[in-house]
Amino acid sequence: MNESEPLYQSRSRFDAIVSDIDGCLCDEHGGPFDLARLGLIREHNAHAIRSNSAPVLTVCSGRPVGFAEAMTRLVGNTILPAIGEMGVYLHDPKTAQSELDPAITQEHLESVAGLQRYFHETLRPMGVTMQPGKSASVTFWHSDTDLLRNRICPGVESLCKERGWPFRVSMSWYYINCDLTHISKATGIERFKTKTNISAERLAGIGDTSSDFAIREKVAFFACPANAIDELKDVADYVAKAPEAEGVVEILGVISDM
Hints:
Elements (H helix, E strand, L loop, with lengths): L15 E4 L15 H17 L4 E4 L5 H10 L7 E3 L4 E4 L4 E4 L5 H18 L5 E2 L6 E5 L3 H19 L3 E5 L3 E6 L4 H12 L6 E4 L6 H4 L4 E4 L5 H4 L4 E2 L4 H13 L2
Parallel strand pairs: 1-2, 1-10, 10-11, 11-12
Antiparallel strand pairs: 3-4, 4-5, 6-7, 7-9, 8-9
Helix pairs in contact: 1-8
């Protein structure tokens, strides 16, 4: 491949679709995979890659990179990088290698370690859990979402400010996400674009919650499943009638026909 050519080119309007995972490809509550719909997405990707007739769907998620890799395999994306851990990693399905963003320094990683120590010393005894498998971000969960939102989240924000830890602290549906301020799904997509030579004009995106505004701003066409938050629906080019993976299949049909 010529270095100036895109890694993948389709005959349709778009070459790639970057999709969030939770709330899009799978259930936010940890329920079973919708294997029937995921199978349809896999068939779409296989046909697209074989015939260059449609955009290939890859993932862009806050999930640990191992989870992003697994979802990439599940949906049959064998050629385009996956974005994991809110932009911390690009995973290459062709080489099975995951690359840490070079903008993350040892000092940043020491801040991550400090926040993890705070979890073990203070939050864990309160019944809070920390999502395993992350390298340069921290995610907290508790069964009491109100406790997370009204007590834990403000406390984490205050601690980061006091210690000078460079985190962006935000709430998704059920989690507190603590991400390095200079790393996001947006920076992950920029790295994706550099690696693939796919321009923003040839990119589409799918998301359902606040962190996916970063996808919206980096793609030419953005869509949501029916379960997305209203604020994101307001800036979407298309909102599916169906939720989650069923909605993504609907969106694939719309984008592929463009």
